[in-house]
Amino acid sequence: PPGPGAVLDAATAFIRNFAAENPGTGDPRRRIAEVAAQVQRYGTYEHTPEELAFGARVAWRNAARCIGRLYWNNLTVRDMRHVQDPDGIAEQCFEHLRFATNGGRVRPVITVFAPDRPGRPAPTLLGEQLVRYADDPRSAHRVELAKELGWKGGETPFEVLPLLVQPGSGGRSPEFYEIPEDAVLEVPLTHPRHPGFAALGLRWYAVPAVCDMSLEIGGITYPAAPFNGWYMGTEIGSRNLGDTDRYDMLPAVAALFGLDTGSDRTLWRDRALVELNAAVLHSYDQAGVTIADHHTESTRFLAHVEREGKHGRPVPTDWSWIVPPLSGSATAVFHRYYDPPDPDLRPAFVHRTPPTALTCPHHA
Amino acid sequence: PPGPGAVLDAATAFIRNFAAENPGTGDPRRRIAEVAAQVQRYGTYEHTPEELAFGARVAWRNAARCIGRLYWNNLTVRDMRHVQDPDGIAEQCFEHLRFATNGGRVRPVITVFAPDRPGRPAPTLLGEQLVRYADDPRSAHRVELAKELGWKGGETPFEVLPLLVQPGSGGRSPEFYEIPEDAVLEVPLTHPRHPGFAALGLRWYAVPAVCDMSLEIGGITYPAAPFNGWYMGTEIGSRNLGDTDRYDMLPAVAALFGLDTGSDRTLWRDRALVELNAAVLHSYDQAGVTIADHHTESTRFLAHVEREGKHGRPVPTDWSWIVPPLSGSATAVFHRYYDPPDPDLRPAFVHRTPPTALTCPHHA
Ligand code: HEM
Ligand code: HEM
C-alpha cells in the first residue's frame, strides 16, 4: 500500500484536476490542505461525493481498452462507501443489477463500496463479473470455490453463479449469495431467419458488470466497485460463445447452418461467427435489451476521440482491444493510430491480479 | 547516409551473426578485417552472395508485421546487384514476376538490385508493388506520374500500371515500362455458389511484390529489392476490395446477395466481407494460383513462433498487423502476446518514406 507521501501526491494531483474540470467547486488549495491534514492524521482521506463521481467517470474516460467511452460523463455513480459487511454488499450488488437493467434499457452504473484503509483492506468481490454462468470455462475457479463453500448447483447449462464476497480482514472465508431472479435479466438466443437456432439452447445475460478491477482515485483504492455498460454484440457472439476456450459454439452453429467444415478455406468459422453475432443482436433487440453493434460503437468511439480532442484531452487507447474481433477492417476504428495507453494514468480501473505476460491480451 | 564508423559497426554485427548461424563458413574475424579494409577505402563494402541471401532471409524473419514467416529460410534470392540501368531493372522485375508466378504455384522471391553507395544513391522502383491497378485509389499518385511521363492508359477497370523506375542520380526523371502480359497472372473473381458474382467484373493479380521498402543488411542499403510471398486471402477480400478508400465493394456485394443494408445491425458488411473473401479463395483455387486463408496462415505463424523459440530466437511481432482483418478472434494468433517489435533490428525491410503518425497503421 502507498505511504502517506504517495497518497498526498496522488490526492493533490486529483484535487487539482477536479477543480480544473469543475469550475465553481471552490479553491483547490483549501481542499488540498484539508486532505493533507486527513492524510497526516489517518494515512488516508475521504472523497466528497462529487469527487467520487468525477473520479469514477474519469476512470472510465481513461480506460484505454474501452470502446464505449463516448458516454463517460453519463455514468451513474452509486455511493455505497458506508456498506462494509458482506450481506450489505451482496444486497447492493443486486440493487446495482436491478438499476442497471432498468427493464432492458441498460444504464451505465458503478457502485462504489468502502475503500482500502491503512492496515484495513476492504472487502472484495470474487470472480470477473457480478453475473457469470457456472458452465462457462472461464468460471471454473469460481465454481470450485462456491462448491467448497457449500453451493449446490452448476448442473444445468447457463446456471447463474452465486456472488462471492470476500470479507476484508480477519482471514475470514468468502460468503456466497444466490443472485435473486429479479436481478438477472437474460435473453434466450434465436436467429432472425433460422428457426432451428433456438434449439441450441443458448442464452446470455443483459448486464456485463465487471467486478475484478479496483477503482483508483487520488491515492485511494476502491477494490469493490463493480461497473457496467451495455454489451457490444461481439463480446457475446464472437468471444463468450465463439472462443474455443469459452462456449466454443462455432462447430454447432456451422452444423445447424449446414456449412462445409471440411476445410478452413470454406470460411465456415467466419460464416458461423456472423450468424452467431446476428442471433445475439436480433435476440437482444427482440427482448428490448440494449446492445450495441460493433459498427455503431466504432463510429461512436471516433466521435469520442474527436470531442475529447476539442477539449484538448488525449484519448489513451489500446488498438488491439478497441478494434472489434469481428470484421476488424470493416470498422472505422481499425484504420488509424491513437494516443498510447499510459499505465500510470489515474483515476483508473486497475486489474486486481495483474495479468501475466503470457495470458491472452483479451482475457487479462 | 551512415558514416564509415556506423557502416563498420553494422557490418561487424552482421558478419558475426552470419558466422554464428552458418557454421563452417570460415572465421568471421578474417571476413571482418576484409570488410573493414573495404569500408576504410570506399566507405562501403560488398556482401558475398551467401551473405546477401542470408541477410535477405533474416530481414524476412525479422519482419514484425508479416504472418508468413514460417518459410523465411525458403526465400529465393535473385542477386542482381550488377543491374543498374532502368531498362535492365525493368527486365529483371518482369523476370522476377515470371519466376515468382511459376504458372500459379507462387514462390517467395526477392530480387536485389544495386545498393546505395557513398554519394551514389541507387535507382529505385516507384509505387508500392510491382503490379498495381490504375483504378485502385491507392495508386492515384503513380497514375498521375505515369501520365505525366507519357503513359496512355488507365481508362478501363483493373488496368495494370506501368513500372516506374527512378534512376539513381543526375536528377533524371523516371522511366516507365509496360509490364508484359506474360509477367502478370491474374484471377477473375467468381463465387462458389452465386453465379452473378462474376458480373461484378472483379479480378486481382497473383503475385504481391512489394517494392517500396529498402532491404538493409549490415550497414548496406538496397533500395530496389522487390520481394513477394503468396497472398493471404484477406489482403484482397477484406482490404484491397473491401476498404472504403480502396475498391469499396461491400455495398455492391451486399446488393448482389440481397442483404438488408438498412441498418448496421443486420451485419450486412460482415456478411458481404465473408462472401467477398470466399470468392477470392475459391477463384484462386479454381485458377490454380497459390493463396493462403487466414486460419491456415495463423496456424503456420504459431508454428513459426514455436520453432524459432526452439532456436532460442525471439519473434518480434506487431499484433495489430498479424491478427487478420477478418474474424480476428477466430484465429489462434489473436489470443496471445508476442515479443515486441524492435525498430532497430537488422537485417530488415524498411519503408522508404516513413509513415507519418496519422496514417492508417495498415497502410504504412
Ligand atoms: C456504455 C457501454 C459500454 C460499452 C459498449 C463498452 C464496451 C467495451 C468493450 C467491448 C470492452 C472490451 C471488453 C473485452 O474485450 O473483454 C470494454 C473494456 C473496458 N471497459 Fe467498457 N464499455 C461500456 C461501458 C463501460 C463503463 C461504464 C466502464 C466503467 C465505468 C467501462 C470500463 C471499461 C474498462 C475498464 C475496460 C477494460 C477491461 C479490462 O481490462 O479487462 N466500460 N468496454
Ligand atoms: C510466403 C507467403 C507470405 C505471406 C502469406 C505473407 C503475409 C503477409 C501479410 C498478410 C502481411 C500484412 C500486409 C498488409 O496488411 O498490408 C505481410 C506483411 C509483410 N511481409 Fe509478408 N507474407 C509472405 C511472404 C513474405 C516475404 C517473402 C517477405 C520478404 C522477403 C515478407 C515481408 C513482409 C514485410 C516486410 C511486411 C510488412 C509490410 C509493411 O510494413 O508494409 N513477406 N505479410
Notes on the structure:
- 2 copies of one chain form a homodimer.
- Helix content of chain A is 35%, strand content 12%.
- By secondary structure, chain A is α+β, with helices and mostly antiparallel strands.
- The first copy, chain A, has one domain (46-339).
- In chain A, β1 (76-79), α4 (86-101) and β2 (109-112) form a beta-alpha-beta unit.
- The longest helix of chain A has 20 residues, at 268-287.
- Residues 354-364 of chain A have low confidence and may be disordered.
- Chain A binds chain B through residues 234, 238-239, 242-243, 245, 250, 264-267, 269-271, 273-274, 277-278, 281, 285, 293, 295-296, 319-320, 323-330, 334-337, 357-363, and chain B through 234, 238-239, 242-243, 245, 250, 264-267, 269-271, 273-274, 277-278, 281, 285, 293, 295-296, 319-320, 323-330, 334-337, 357-363.
- One protoporphyrin IX containing FE is lined by residues 60, 63, 65-68, 71, 75, 108, 110, 213, 227, 229-230, 232, 235, 292, 297, 321, 349, 362, 364 of chain A.
Roughly how many Å apart are the termini of chain A?
22 Å
Number of strands of chain A: 14
- Discrete helix count of chain A: 10
The SSE string of chain A, one letter per element, is HHHEHEEHEEEEEEEEEHHHEHHE
Specify which chain pair forms the largest interface: A-B, 44 and 44 residues
Query: Which range best describes the helical content of chain A: under 10%, 10-25%, 25-40%, 40-55%, 55-70% or over 70%?
Result: 25-40%
Oligomeric status of the shown chains? homodimer
Associated small molecules = protoporphyrin IX containing FE
Going across the biggest sheet of chain A, name each strand in turn: 1-2-11-8
- Write down the domain tally of chain A: 1
Radius of gyration of chain A: 22 Å
Mean pLDDT of chain A: 95
Helix and strand content put the structural class of chain A at alpha+beta
Largest sheet of chain A, described in full?
4 strands, mixed
Shape of chain A: globular
Strand content bin of chain A: 5-15%
Low-confidence stretches of chain A: 354-364
